[in-house]
C-alpha cells in the first residue's frame, strides 16, 4: 500500500505566508483539503486506491488527536492492509477508552470503549486494534459480505476461528449483531484467495449450492496444473473467479504480456478439462457474482445441483 504525502503548516512556522500559499493552491485546484490545514496533491489523490486515500485521511486527522485513541474498524482494516469492499468511509474510526458512547465529529468517528481492554499494535506510528479485534469489530458493524471478506483475509494471516470467537465472547453486543457476527466467523475460510472469491463463495451459499472445496490442486502427466478457486466434486465442476487483475497488474503478470497471460490461462484450462474427474470449467467475474448476476444459472447449467 502506498502512502500519499499530506501537506500542512506546523505550528509556529516562521513564514506567515506558508498557510496562504496552501490555501491559494487549493483554490487553484492543485491541492485538495482533507481537514483544516491539511492537504494532498489533487491529481495524486484522484489516481490513488481507496486504501491510499483513507490512509491519507488518517495521516491528516490522527496527529491532532489525543494520544489515547486507537485506530479501529475500517480505518484499522486500511492500516493492516486488509481488503475492503467498495468505497472506504471518509471518517477515520477510532476507539475512545474515555467514552461509553460514540461521538461523531467532522472527520472522526469515535466508538466508546470505556468498558473494553484493548492492547493495540503499532503501525506507521499509530496505535491500532490488532487483527482479531479489527475483524470482530467489522463483523459486528458491517454488512455480512463485507465482514466475510475481512474475516477470510484475517484467517489467511494465521488468526484462528477460536481466537475470533473468543474475542466475540468478550463483547456485549446486541443479540442480533452477535448472532450475525458468529455466523460470519463460522462461514469464513482462510483459503479464499481474493475478495472476489469470498463474495462468490457467499453467493453460492445464498443460492443454495453445496459448499465447494477451495484451492484444490490438480495434476496430470506433466505435473502440477495448479490450484483451482472452487471445486464441486459431486458435479465434477471447477469454477474459477476471474478478477481481471492478472491481466492488468504488471506484478501479477510476472513480466508476461496480457496476451501471454491469456494464452497461458487457456493452456492451463485445457489441461484441467483433460483431467478425467473434471467435466467442465466455469469462469465467473465480479459482474456474475453480484446480485442479479448470471453465476447461479451458469452453475446450474454446468450440472451443480442446489441442496434440497
Main beta sheet strand tally, sense and closure: 4 strands, mixed
Please write the string of helix (H) and strand (E) elements: EHEEHHEHEEEEEHHHHHEEEHHHEHH
Report Rg.
23 Å
- Total helices: the number is 14
What class do helices, strands and sheet pairing give? Answer: alpha+beta
- Classify the helix fraction into a percent range: 40-55%
Distance between the termini: 44 Å
Number of beta strands:
13
Enumerate the spans where pLDDT stays under 50 for 5 or more consecutive residues: 245-249
For the biggest β-sheet, the strand order reads: 4-5-7-6
Shape: globular
Fraction of residues in β-strands: 15-25%
Mean pLDDT, all residues: 90
SSE order and pairing:
Blueprint: E1 7-8, H1 18-27, E2 31-35, E3 38-41, H2 42-47, H3 50-61, E4 70-71, H4 73-79, E5 92-96, E6 103-104, E7 108-112, E8 121-123, E9 126-128, H5 131-141, H6 144-156, H7 161-169, H8 175-187, H9 195-206, E10 213-220, E11 223-232, E12 237-241, H10 245-248, H11 250-253, H12 258-273, E13 280-284, H13 286-289, H14 295-301
Parallel strand pairs: 5-7, 12-13
Antiparallel strand pairs: 1-3, 2-3, 4-5, 6-7, 8-9, 10-11, 11-12
How is this structure best summarized?
The protein has 308 residues and is α+β, with helices and mostly antiparallel strands. The protein has helices spanning 18-27, 42-47, 50-61, 73-79, 131-141, 144-156, 161-169, 175-187, 195-206, 245-248, 250-253, 258-273, 286-289, 295-301, and strands at residues 7-8, 31-35, 38-41, 70-71, 92-96, 103-104, 108-112, 121-123, 126-128, 213-220, 223-232, 237-241, 280-284. The strands form 4 sheets. The protein has a 4-stranded mixed beta sheet with strand order 4-5-7-6. The chain has a 4-stranded mixed beta sheet with strand order 10-11-12-13. A 3-stranded antiparallel beta sheet has the order 1-3-2.
Amino acid at each position: 500500500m502506498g502512502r500519499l504525502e499530506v501537506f500542512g503548516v506546523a505550528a509556529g512556522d516562521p513564514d506567515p505566508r506558508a498557510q496562504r500559499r496552501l490555501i491559494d493552491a487549493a483554490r487553484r485546484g492543485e491541492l485538495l483539503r482533507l481537514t483544516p490545514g491539511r492537504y494532498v496533491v489533487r491529481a495524486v489523490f484522484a489516481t490513488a486506491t481507496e486504501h491510499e486515500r483513507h490512509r491519507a485521511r488518517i495521516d491528516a486527522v490522527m496527529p491532532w488527536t489525543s494520544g489515547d485513541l486507537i485506530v479501529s474498524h475500517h480505518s484499522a482494516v486500511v492500516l493492516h492492509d486488509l481488503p475492503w469492499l467498495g468505497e472506504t468511509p471518509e471518517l477515520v474510526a477510532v476507539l475512545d477508552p474515555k467514552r461509553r458512547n460514540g461521538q461523531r465529529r467532522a472527520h472522526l468517528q469515535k466508538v466508546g470503549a470505556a468498558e473494553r481492554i484493548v492492547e493495540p499494535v503499532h503501525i506507521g506510528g499509530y496505535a491500532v486494534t490488532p487483527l482479531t479485534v479489527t475483524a470482530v469489530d467489522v463483523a459486528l458493524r458491517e454488512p455480512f459480505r463485507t465482514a466475510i471478506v475481512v474475516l477470510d483475509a484475517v484467517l489467511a494471516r494465521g488468526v484462528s476461528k477460536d481466537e475470533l470467537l473468543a474475542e466475540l465472547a468478550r463483547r456485549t453486543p446486541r443479540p442480533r449483531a452477535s448472532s450475525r457476527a458468529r455466523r460470519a466467523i463460522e462461514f469464513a475460510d482462510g483459503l479464499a484467495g481474493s475478495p472476489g472469491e469470498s463474495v462468490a463463495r457467499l453467493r453460492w451459499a445464498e443460492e443454495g449450492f453445496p459448499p465447494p472445496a477451495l484451492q484444490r490442486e490438480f495434476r496430470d502427466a506433466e505435473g502440477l496444473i495448479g490450484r483451482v478457486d472452487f471445486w464441486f466434486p459431486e458435479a465434477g465442476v471447477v469454477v474459477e473467479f476471474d478478477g481481471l487483475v492478472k491481466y492488468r497488474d504488471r506484478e501479477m503478470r510476472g513480466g508476461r504480456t496480457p496476451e501471454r497471460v491469456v494464452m497461458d490461462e487457456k493452456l492451463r484450462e485445457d489441461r484441467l478439462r483433460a483431467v478425467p474427474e473434471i467435466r467442465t470449467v466455469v469462469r465467473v467475474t465480479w459482474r456474475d457474482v453480484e446480485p442479479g448476476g448470471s453465476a447461479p444459472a451458469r452453475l446450474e447449467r454446468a450440472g451443480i445441483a442446489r441442496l434440497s
